[in-house]
Amino acid sequence: MTAQRACALSELEQDTAVRVVLDGVPMAVVLDSAGEVHAIGDVCTHGDISLSEGFVEGETLECWAHGSAFSLRTGKPLNLPAYEPVPVYVVEIDGDDVLIDPTVTKEV
Predict the structure, then answer these.
(1) pLDDT tens-digit series, residues 73-98
(2) What residue range is the signal peptide (predicted)?
(3) Which of 30, 43, 78, 91 sits a CA distance of 20 to 30 A from 49?
(4) Average pLDDT taken over every residue of the chain
(5) CATH H superfamily, domain 4-105
C-alpha cells in the first residue's frame, strides 16, 4: 500500500492532536512545537481512550483519562499506568498534504 492523504498541513494547529482514520486504522496526527508532524496510534494501550483528545507537550501526547504520556517519536509510554507502546507511523509531507501509510510503522 502507498501513503494516503491524512489531512492538510494547514489544518494542524501546533501542539494539538487531530484524529484521522485511514483504512480503519485510527491515528493521532500532531504538529509539535518544533514544527515536526508525527502520527501515532490513537488508542491508549491502558484503556480504550482516544489519545487525540489528550494533551500535547513537547514530544509527548498525554492520555486525558489516566495521564499516561506517550513519546511521539517512539510510541513508548513514559509513565504508568500504560506500559505497552502505541504504533508510530511514517509521515511524509507533499506540499500541504500530510501523507501516511497505515500499513507501515516505524521501527524504533
Answers:
(1) 999 999 999 999 999 999 999 999 99
(2) none
(3) 91
(4) 96
(5) Rieske [2Fe-2S] iron-sulphur domain (2.102.10.10)
